[in-house]
Amino acid sequence: MLAQAGRPLGVNCKFWSDREESCCAGLGEIVASRYEDELLARRFGSGLDVVTFEFENIPAETLRTLSEHARTAPPPLALEVSQDRLKEKELFRSLGMQTAPFVAVSDLPSAHAAANALGFPLILKTRRLGYDGKGQALVNSSSEIETAMATLGGVDLIAEGFVRFSREISMLAARNGTGKIAFYDPVLNLHAGGILRCSIAPAPQISAEQLSALRENTVRLLNALNYIGVIAIEFFEVGGGYLANEFAPRVHNSGHWTIDGAKTSQFETHLRAILGQPFAPTTTLGRNAMLNLIGALPAPDFSAGQSVYLHLYGKTPRPGRKVGHINIRAPQYSDLSMKVQELCTVPGVSDASAEIESFCARYLA
Questions:
Q1: What confidence tens digit (pLDDT) does each residue in 177-203 have?
Q2: Does this chain's domain 2-72 share its CATH topology with 167-363?
Q3: Alpha-carbon gap, residue 162 to 115, rounded angstroms
Q4: Which residue in 168, 204, 167 sits closest to 185, CA to CA?
Q5: How many whole angstroms separate alpha carbon 231 and alpha carbon 88?
Q6: How far is the C-alpha of 124 from the C-alpha of 152, rounded, in Å?
Q7: What's residue 272's pLDDT?
C-alpha cells in the first residue's frame, strides 16, 4: 500500500522480502532473502533516497546496518524500543505517559514476586515478538504462573497489572525531519480473539480535553525518538484518562481507513514525511469504519456499494490471517452503524459479527 500511494508522487520502490512470493509483485524490484542477511543489509540501500519498513518484526541489527549505508526512517531506535515491551513501557514512563503497572520477569521467583507486587489477575507477556494477541497469557492465581511461563517459551517476560479499560483508542500521527507533526483524528478500535476487527474514525465521545491529552502524549514520544514517518500509539481509556499500551513505528492497520476516509492516506503521509515533502491535509472525510477480513474473503461477486471500498492484499486465506479490509464512509455515525452491520451479514466479511454489532450499538447509536 505504501508503493501504491507512492506512484502518484513519482516514487519508485525497491522491496526486501523474506520470501519468494510477495504481494508487492509488479510494484518494483523485489530482493528475496532472510532479514538477517548482513551482506544484503550493507548494499540494499545503494542508490536509494531512503529506506523504510512496513512491519516491525525485522531485526533491529539489520536496520542499524542499513542505516550505516543509507538514510533510514523511522530511526533504528524506534524499532528497537517497539520490539521490547519492557523498554517500551520504561520509555513511556520516562516521558510522563501513564501506563499499566509492570514488572520485569526473568524466572519463576521473579514471576511470583511480580504477582505479589501487582496482584491477580495479571498478564504475562513475552518481551519480544508479540502481536495480534500472541506471546501473552492471562494469569488468575499463583498456581497458574509456572504453566503460563512454560507456554510462553521460557524467555524474558514482562508482567502487567490487569487493566479494566472502557475502550481502546489509537493515535495516528506523522513527524518529518524538521519536527513538524501532522495528526489524524483518534481511532476507536475493537479487538476479538486478540486481532483488530473494526476501527471507527473519528472516535466518538472524545472531549477536547481528552484529545489534547492524547496529542500531547503523542508529541512527547515522537520528539523523544527524533521520529520520522507515521506512528500509531495504542491507548487504553480508563476513567476518562489514558494509559499508553504500545506503539507501532510504521503505518498501521487501525489507519487503513485513511485510504478512503481522509484527504490524505497514512501511506502518502508516511512517504511525504520520510522524503521531506510538505504534508498534505489529513482531514477526516465524514464518519468512517474499517473492517478487517480475517482468514476468509467475500465471494468474487461481492458488490461493495456506495461509499464502501474493498481492499484485497493478494494473500491466500488461512485462519487468523489478515487478507484484506473494507472501508466504509457515511455522513453520520448512525448511517455508518447500519452499513457496518449490514456488511457483517455478508459471508466471508467477518466471523465477529456479534461483537461488531454490540460495538456499533454502544458507540454509534
A1: 999 999 999 999 999 988 999 999 999
A2: no
A3: 11
A4: 204
A5: 14
A6: 8
A7: 98
Taking the CB of residue 358, how many other CB atoms lie within 10 A of it?
12
DSSP designation for 262: B
The answer to whether 349 touches 318, Cβ cutoff 8 Å, is: no
Question: Rounded to the nearest 10 degrees, how much is the dihedral formed by the CA atoms of 282, 92, 290, 190?
Answer: -150
Cis upstream peptide for 109 (omega within 30°): no
Q: How sure is the predictor about 305, in pLDDT bands with cuts at 50, 70 and 90?
A: confident
Closest CA to 129 of 197, 59, 180, 193: 59
Assigned CATH for 167-363: 3.30.470.20
Cβ distance 74 to 225 under 8 Å? yes
CA distance 346 to 294: 14
Rounded to 10°, the helix 208-224/85-94 angle is 110
DSSP 162: -
Pairing of the two strands 229-238 and 308-312: unpaired
> If you classify domain 2-72 with CATH, what class do you get?
alpha beta
What are the grid coordinates assigned to 178, written together? 524538521
Tell whether omega for the bond before 347 is within 30 degrees of 0, i.e. cis. no
CA distance 168 to 88: 18
SS3 for 23-78 is CCCCCEEEEECCCCCHHHHHHCCCCCCCECCCCCCCCHHHHHHHHCCCCECCCHHH
Length of the chain: 365
Distance spanning both ends of the chain, measured CA to CA: 32
This prediction's pTM: 0.95
Q: Please report how the helices 353-363 and 333-343 are oriented relative to each other, as an axis angle in degrees rounded to 10.
A: 170
Query: Is 245 in contact with 235 (CB distance < 8 Å)?
Result: yes
Provide the Cα torsion 239, 244, 246, 248; round to 10°.
110
101-161 to CATH, choices 2.70.170.10, 3.30.1490.20, 3.40.50.720, 3.10.20.70: 3.30.1490.20
- Domain extents for the chain? 2-72, 101-161, 167-363
